[in-house]
Every structure is written in C-alpha cells, then in structure tokens.
Amino acid sequence: NEPPIRVTLIRENKNKHKIAITTHHIAIDGWSLPVFLDELFALYDAPDAELSQMTPYADYIRWTALRPDTEADDFWRDQLADLEGPTLIAPDAGGQSAGVTLSRKLDATATGQLESRARDLGITLNALIQSAWGLYLSRRSGQRDVIFGTTVSGRPADLPGVERMVGLFINTLPLRLRPKPAQPVSEFLRQTHDRLSATLEHQHVPLSRLQRIAGHEQLFDTLTVFENYPSGPADGDAADAALSVERHSQHGGDATHYPMGLAAVPGEALRLTLSYRGDLFNVEEAGQVLDSVETILRGLADPSDPKLGEIGLLNDAATDRALTVLRGAEHPRKRQSLPDLVCEAARHAPHATALISAEGRLDYAGLERASAVLARRLAGAGVRRGQIVAMLLPRGIAAITGLLAIMRAGAVYLPLDPDYPRDRIASVLDDAAPALVLTDRQGVALASGHRHLLTDDDTPFPLSAPVPHPEASDPAYVIYTSGSTGRPKGVVLTHAAAVNAILSRAERYPRPEVSVLLPSLAFDASLAVIFGALATGSTLVLPEPGAEKQPAELVRLIGRHAIREWISGPGLWRAVLAEGAADLSSLHTVVLGGEAIPASLIATHRQSATADLWNEYGPTEGAIWCASAQVTADGKAQNIIGKPISNMQFLILDASLQPVPVGVVGELYIAGSGLAQGYLNR
C-alpha cells in the first residue's frame, strides 16, 4: 500500500543534506532514473525553471494498444520454432530468495579490445556480452541450442519523445543462440547482433505471450542486462557550482525471480555484475561464473578470429589447476609383466599358500612350476609371442594356472566363461580368432572349430625350449565388453598398464592376506582379485562355480577361510549382508564397483560389518580400475569415484574438449599409463 516513489530528505547539518529516493520498478526503470533526477536537480537549482515538455507515459500505452499483434507473433513464432525445451541453470529451483550480487571490472586494456572488436565487426558491445553469456550457457549445459532472457529498453524508436519519458518500459525477451564449435567467432557475433536488432522491432510483446507461442511454461532462468542508460547529473557532481550535488550510492534489494543474471555496464572499464540467488549458489560459484564469462569475452575479442570450440571456460591458471587436481601420484614402475609379479612373490615365500579350492591347496612354488610347464606346452603347440590364446575353463586352480601359463608363453590371454551362452562364446571366438583355445574335456564342445589344448589330458606332449619372456609393452590380455551399447568389442591391455593397476592396489588398500575370487573370469574385475592377491603373496580362495549365486554359502566361506578382502558388485554384497553378519568379522576391506552403491546398502553395511567400505571405478579400457573412494560413516563418497590411482589422470571436458570448471557437467576422460592399447580388429 506504499506509494511507488518515496523521497526522504535527511539533514546532517545546515549545509549538508541527503536525499533518499526509493522507487519501485513499476514506476521508474533504469533509463528513466537519470531523466527523473535531471529534472529534479534542475528544479532544485532553479525552482522557476521552465522544463521541456515531457511526453506522458499514457502515449506509450496507447502506442502498444494500437500495434498489430499478427506481425510480431509471426516473428516470434519463427524465432522460437522447434525449441526442444528451456535452458535452465537451476532446474530444481523453486520459490524466490533474496538476491546477492558480485561485481568486477575488466581492465581498461581488455575493455578497449572488446570495443575495438565490436567496431571492426560493425556490431554493438551488447552483442558481445550476449554472445558471451550464450556461449557460457551452451558450455555449462552441453546444449547447442540455448535460450536466455535479455532485458531491452522497450522504447520504440518511432514513438516521439520516448527518450524523455518516465515509467516502466523495459521488457524481458528470449534470446536464442546456437553456437557451433567449428564456427568462427566473427560469424557467431554477427549472428547475435543481427538477432538482437531484429528483436528490437518486436520488443513490446510480453514474455507471457512468447511463452504461449513457444509452447513452454518456462523458457529460461537466466537474464542479461546491458545498462547503456543515458547519463545525467545523477552520474556525478552537478555542473552548476551554485549547487554541489554528489551521488553517494544506490542500494537495491529484491526477491529475484531468476536464479542468475548478468549485468554489464559499459565505461572505461567494463563492469560485470552477477546477481544470483544465495540459496542456490555460493560466492565461490558466482566468482567462477564471472571468471568464465571474462575468459569467454577475452576469447571473443581475439582479433585472430578463433573457432568457438577453441574458447574455453577457464583461464590459463584455472586450466592448469583443473589438469592437476585430478591427477594421481607419479610412481615410476619397473618394466615388468603380470607373471613377473607372481614369480617374485613365489621367490619371497615359495611355501606360502597361493590357491585354495575344493580341489585342494597349491603353494606359490607349485603354482610357479605348474604354470611354467603349461607355458612350455603352449609353446610346443605352436603358440607364439603376441598371439591370442583363449581360455575356456571354470573357476579353479587349473584356470589360474592356465592364465599365468598363457602370459608366461608371451601370448595374449582371452578369458571366456563356460557358463556364457554358446552364441556369445562363438561370437567372441570368431572375432578374436585365437591361435589356440585352452580348455578341458567339458568345454571342448564350446570351442568347436578352433584348435584347442586340454588341461586335463595326461597324454605326453612335447615341451618347447624356454619360452620368450613377455615385455611390459606386449599385450597381456583381451577382455570383451558386454555389448550393452552395441556389438561387444575386445579391449587390448598391455602388461605395463595392468601392472600399474595391480601395484596401485597395494598403494591404496591393505594387503589382501586372504581374498576370494567372485567375478566371472570374463570380467576384468577378476584380474584385480587374482593379481591383487598373488602379487602380494596373499592367498586366493576359489569358490565352486555358481557359489556367487548362493549368499549363504559365501557367508560360510568367509568364516571358514577367514576371508580378509571382498571385491564384488553392490548386489552380491547386499545379498551376503542379508544372510547375517556373524561370520563377517574377519573382513577388513570391502570393495564394490560396477554400479552405484545405494544409501540403504551403506546403512546395512555399517550395521552388519566392520570392514572399510570402498567405491571403486574404472572402465575396461582403463586397465581394471582407475579410482576409488572410501565410503565414510556418514555415507559420503556413496557415488564419488575418488581420486585417480598412480600414473593416471582424469579430465572433465565439454563437447569441444575444453576443461570445465568445478560444478559444470562434462564428460570424463581418462589419461595415463593404464589406458588400453585399443580395440581388437578395430
């Protein structure tokens, strides 16, 4: 119920007063304020002064009422055609909140470069600002078609006296931009300039009508303002020495409808002000947005006219930080193969138990001998260094021996699960074309049409001379992807990549001591369990095939063998916890991977087990694993993949392969010594 304009005179002493003018936007907009103050100060200085005739605001109302809607609607219908949806920086924002602002000024040199660029291209500085915000939104959201609000003066050029009218004229219009990474900056800037110019012909259309035309209740949640208002006495000391008027400050506060807005004020040093909702963003995030906008503006001002895709969101210093913060420790590795790690453990403790299964036990010395003999059998069968040897064996001592033998023969290990569908096995064998299939009598039918060697055949077989030692750069194994996104692909990993992954386990987790092999041999997670145990002289327990489908049996297995380390997917661990926690006290480490860990599972784990819980991440193309994070008691790191392992690096990049700031969505890229050699036959 208060008046829209209030004036308060505050006397400090007989020669000094302050005047406080409080206005509502419904009465005066940013353009009108200097006009209003100009006349106010003129009358204060000379109460009898004759002011120029002011065109009443009612003329503007009549002008809008007489404007035909058809032409404007057709224009906006074309502008908003085929819009898939809004561009939202805070899609879950609701209600309103007090706005917070953060400002900065570009230096005079950068401002001059922007103005020079605008002059050279025949565009306005406003077009540069709008282009920068559109490019920022595109990079932040990953959308190639973005839309945001821009505030226009709303003063039609063909309305006489409109420049001196006082009232609310401003309007918010949607600005739709489609930045393309390969597009030259100059072309994009001119497109923005032309689009802005075209919208001014139809700037009187209310936003509510534009939303109906577009068919979307909401089009955007960010706003830009270019405050190019006319100047007046309010901008400095009055020229008349008889009246010394100084503008001290202007304060404003309101409940903002938009989560974020960017205002630009031209001058010798361009001022950028970011307004944002304090309940949605903090000051660090706001500063990061301004950093990105400034970086983009500097890129747009580059006279060499780069492509849009060459302009990132981070300046050089921030890029360096982004490239180092997600980098694992640098640990030089010896040039070793995977079997070297096991043979080294065998030399240190030859009589320690390496394998336990229903068949019995095998110590490290026995495993080393058996794998060496089988490696010579493979070589005697014609297997040569670098050739693929498929292994089609159930989980057991023979399978672990066969795996080591294939690698010790210099061949490339290709695991196949006998429980897989025949079509899947046949498809992989046809694609990989192995030199040999290592199998047993039960699996020989699945290897039909391929040369094979039986592990359970006692027939004397010629042994070759000592087999060549595999090099670290040689391919160690091929793991086929699930094919969930298309045809399964064989991922080729070198010994060096795999050795780095295995040695990194010892750097992050406690020594397994006693571990249990649960993943299928066809999954690379099995290699983490096998070599994580055997490279550290620990004992590897091999459950009967199918045991992973019997949680109660697994609980008994943990208690029977005092299992210390557990590696599986979240689903299997949930099933084990559901069986009871009485026999889980031996576990010191539980590593879950392959999918997100539900919060309910974390809570159950805390109630039923005392082991440390880890969330592990890594695609097959990244040599088994790339990162892990310990899940704390409060459930943090539930879906955090953690910091990269040694000699590996993460990069979060946008569609133009530019690093993105913290909090901005991008794609995860993995670099380092653990990367795959490539895809087999591709």
TrEMBL record:
It comes from the Bacteria. GO terms for biological process: amino acid activation for nonribosomal peptide biosynthetic process; secondary metabolite biosynthetic process. Residues 1-319 form the Condensation domain. Residues 344-680 form the AMP-dependent synthetase/ligase domain. InterPro entries: AMP-binding, AMP-binding_CS, AMP-dep_synth/lig_dom, CAT-like_dom_sf, Condensation_dom. One of its GO terms (molecular function) is phosphopantetheine binding. PANTHER family: FATTY ACID SYNTHASE, NONRIBOSOMAL PEPTIDE SYNTHETASE. This is Amino acid adenylation domain-containing protein.
